[in-house]
Amino acid sequence: MTVQRDDDNISHQMRKTWIRLGIIFFLTAVFLFFFFKSVDWNDVLANLTNVNLKYFLLALLLAPLHLLTRSIRWQYLIKYEKKGVSLYNRFAANAIGFTVNFIFPGRIGEIAKPIYLAQKEDIKRGFMVGTVVVERIFDIIICSMLLGLYFVSRPIFPAYYQAGDDAYSLLSFWGIFGISIAIFLLLLILAVYFYKEKALTVFAFLLRPFSKKISDWALRILEEFIQGLKFFHSVGNLFMYILLSVVVWLGITLFYWVFLLAYNIDVMYFSTYPYIFLTGVGASIPTPGMVGGFHYFSKLGMTSFLNVEANLAVSITIVVHAVQLVMTCLIGYAILWKEGISLLQIKKLGEDLKQ
Asked: What's this model's pTM, rounded to 2 decimal places?
């Protein structure tokens, strides 16, 4: 009877996996269809190498900058559980997490990243996962805030804001959507943190259909997760985290701005932000290596807000995606080689916790 139940569970898990993969690859195909729609390949290929080498090399150096700034910022979430966590280990966890995201579908790297650091620094896994949830919420909040500043600056620099009303309406929709989700999640985790006992009671009730072993494990992870929210008690720490979050996204903006300059797209630094915001929307779609979602929204952002011709936008998108993938994976694989760990082992860390 137990064997039959185990077989049924395995079969159910396999069906869920295949359905999830089917949806992911369907989305990838749809986005790629619209990305490549009406493309003149001769023009695209001609644009690929028409690049300012000085700016291109600078962009290569800037590509991994966000890994460093994210690693510095992360310490403000971790220090309440453990002080003196190695910057190298934080950087390695970020590089490995993004490498996993680039190679595998489902954004497994978002789980593998904190689990890797938890094992390296002997920190509770649930706690580390909690810090990454907070990190992503603040990424959305800061991105939406910068988008709001972009809209505020439109009347001051009208010459740099020449997109059509439809484009600004679409951008406004995604901005409102993003900030709404971020505020909802922020209020939810604050409620969980400040009303810990009630949250655990509700969660225990929801887990009643499961076995005691699974329920106990899930409740332990939730308690560790709640501990990862301790930094909300310090106003000064919260301020520094917000400030560093701004630094992270200004650095990402700098990378894309320099990359656009490499392709002779002469735009004001901050006027590139709608493009960056939309690429963030595309990158959040859990396709393998951001393929499809990133490409479509990158092309949309360049053609709608930067007045870039469609074929050139396709060329730039292909190259900028390749640069991010190659630079991130080179760093990630170098760290894995140094640590004597395979990418499949790291992937399994993420899958084990998700299951």
From this structure: 0.83
